[in-house]
């Protein structure tokens, strides 16, 4: 802990800081690149929809002693698709595989009979329709739409519209990337995947809101000071919650990573892979986007506002004047990492008093803002 | 230092942490106790985790309509059956077609499979019944409130016969008699004929046609059934889902019945209904369309030629009645889906206007078309199925999950040291609460824990832990400011609280929207997410915070022991701004 704890302390005091906002063009570029890759992947390879959406073939065996796991192995070998195997009450097996037409189904049926050592022709092959109908999928989409609208309204009220827009962009970014990864990896999309996506939507916004909350607090009285620009304060806000972000992401990702890499990788838990992959990619993207996309985006939007623009001008002018007078580099240090130690005391007072970053209990939120 | 254990409470209002904590433990004990007492010690598992029952249905077309067994109709039937088995909540049954003429329905273990079999085995029954009386769902207070209303281009029918009170009595009379007495029905039909109606048939021929299956049963039982029905109607409570489901379930079309339905603003109402006059097979086609002239959504219905005759008759009759008896109820599977008023006699095509939006207009259109489905289903086989997620997969998943959780514990301990105790206890409390509530709610709302729900719970670990992490980091920031632990714990709280509430609200919003809008598995997932989010807030407020307050009084934490995770030196606290001493020295709590 000590090293990270120490880092936390230095981040908190602004002794070290990573310039998330200043280098935003880089992050935007990276994200656009990833998103384009995702979209191209989606366009070229398409999504591999599972049996729940598209239907497929179902094989019913006569009474057999072949185990479920064994049958699953045979079926996946014979078809190349993940199979759902269930044992029915009378010791027969029901094997469902996606993406087969009648001809293929019959062939696979014969292959299965051979593998399982049961007379050919006793395996019954039929096509099944989707169990996760278009209706359910449509309702999920409707839910997504309604939710996005409500969230934008909520964020616009609780914070401001710029943050609502930025949060929405970050959300779409996360979902696009996750869907793109599915297209590229070629995993079958199951209801679990869809639900994984919906989970991400909640989490991505949740994470963004935590960062925004700190940003809002940091920029409360921004126009009353001339020390920092909006972008710099936004950067500080990210840095001061960075330890929280790292810890939360680690804690959220560890169980999912367990499912994905240990469960899926070594133990071969097929169906779990679908969900844990979408969760893993989505959670990681969600954590990334709240820091690297959402907040810089807010700073970008905000710095277009006349008051904030004027502030930036004042701050820069003041710094120039200070530099002209040959004072210490403290104020002119736009990047403000590695600020000289001796300036610490003054900086802390300034930031504490003016920016309200350290809110000494007086910055209690008004009750209206809570919920 | 020697922090005084009790007695000296800081004057700042930090409540009574001990009491809050005790209360929380009592609630927890009650929940766990309730769980064991009710015998529901495990959550009901979904079909993918526990298996269940699979029912195979075979479609049978009506004689002469063999081509009815086609893909479109089968898919429509899947929609109807899905609606029925999942209608009561989050039971997460799966419905799919198999082959050309079979539908398989998978029902999770623990659902009453006999009841389910009955539900899925019958065809959708759609009837148009005259409304005899409408009351709000619960107890009495007669008030035939704002019902869906308004039918097309109204020529408001002029029959101001008598005042409402009398009419209500009349209605009851009709309710008492009609099941048997031909006179009453005859009178009703004659009444209809007075209207300017294209309906050709006379009173005599009209009567057998009007009740859909010609069963003019003998009179004697009539009155008895009627008054029994009256009582049933008075007793019916549509706010109770069970009563709602049973109301009018086994109603014979030629008998009057009671039923529940929602009005235009979504509130429940109960209906006393006359015998069915038109049934679903009389509807040729129905769809929700946007009326370009008025710019509102309406439902257009086309009747078969026979249906048109019947419909003309019922509407002609109804248009002469005062409200609420000028409504006809569209009853699907014993539930009133809509009860529009009739203002004039209508025939072959009719439209229903009212408070529709696109969704509700199209839904009603679908329901009306479904009722026209010329298929019936026979139950072919009923057998158990093992879970779709095999035993070994489940085991692998559990092992992997356990490893993941262990890693979380290790990480928290390494990073937060003593504080991780708080985090882990809070996670544990939250886990116990989630588990017991899921077990208790299983039977109550038909909730079944399936794989997606488990995933919701896993992600919830992250969201729950985040609340502690936000709070801990705030406390540490305060300590870095040079505060001692006790004021730091209190000062950090309001700010952490706001962050937690704002962000949990977003998460809860997601869950609530999904729960309301969606069905089936997604709904189950939304339920898990919403539940865990709410519990997160509960745990942080009533467990983590009080526990933190109490721990801040112990020597181990207050002195900033290196293993407490709150060592000012390690945190890099700077000297207090207006104080001379360094904080790392044992702190006198009085100074706070």
Automatic annotation (TrEMBL), chain A:
Membrane topology: Multi-pass membrane protein
Biased composition annotated in UniProt, kind: Basic and acidic residues: 334-345
Transmembrane segment boundaries: 26-44, 140-157, 164-187, 193-215, 246-269, 275-299
Any one annotated GO CC term: plasma membrane
Biased amino acid composition, Basic residues: 359-371
Pfam families on file: Sec_GG (PF07549), SecD_SecF_C (PF02355)
InterPro entries: SecD/SecF_arch_bac, SecD/SecF_bac, SecD/SecF_CS, SecD_SecF_C, SecD_SecF_C_bact, SecF_bac
A GO term, aspect molecular function: protein-transporting ATPase activity
GO BP: any one term: protein transport by the Sec complex
Region (Disordered) residue spans: 322-371
Domain Protein export membrane protein SecD/SecF C-terminal: 116-303
This protein's UniProt keywords: Cell membrane, Membrane, Protein transport, Translocation, Transmembrane, Transmembrane helix, Transport
UniProt main location, coarse: membrane
Subcellular location(s) of the protein: Cell membrane
Protein role: Part of the Sec protein translocase complex. Interacts with the SecYEG preprotein conducting channel. SecDF uses the proton motive force (PMF) to complete protein translocation after the ATP-dependent function of SecA.
Annotated family: Belongs to the SecD/SecF family. SecF subfamily.
Record's subunit section: Forms a complex with SecD. Part of the essential Sec protein translocation apparatus which comprises SecA, SecYEG and auxiliary proteins SecDF. Other proteins may also be involved.
HAMAP family: SecF_B
Name listed for the protein in its UniProt record: Protein-export membrane protein SecF
Species this chain originates from: Streptomyces pacificus
Classification of source organism: Bacteria, Bacillati, Actinomycetota, Actinomycetes, Kitasatosporales
From TrEMBL, chain B:
Membrane-spanning residues: 21-39, 396-414, 421-445, 451-472, 500-519, 525-543
Positions with biased composition (Polar residues): 176-187
Keyword terms: Cell membrane, Membrane, Protein transport, Translocation, Transmembrane, Transmembrane helix, Transport
Every Protein export membrane protein SecD/SecF C-terminal domain range: 377-552
Primary role: Part of the Sec protein translocase complex. Interacts with the SecYEG preprotein conducting channel. SecDF uses the proton motive force (PMF) to complete protein translocation after the ATP-dependent function of SecA.
GO biological process, alphabetically ordered: intracellular protein transmembrane transport; protein targeting; protein transport by the Sec complex
Record-given protein name: Protein translocase subunit SecD
Key word Transport present: yes
Subunit relationships: Forms a complex with SecF. Part of the essential Sec protein translocation apparatus which comprises SecA, SecYEG and auxiliary proteins SecDF. Other proteins may also be involved.
Stated family: Belongs to the SecD/SecF family. SecD subfamily.
Main location: membrane
Membrane protein topology class: Multi-pass membrane protein
Cell compartment(s), UniProt: Cell membrane
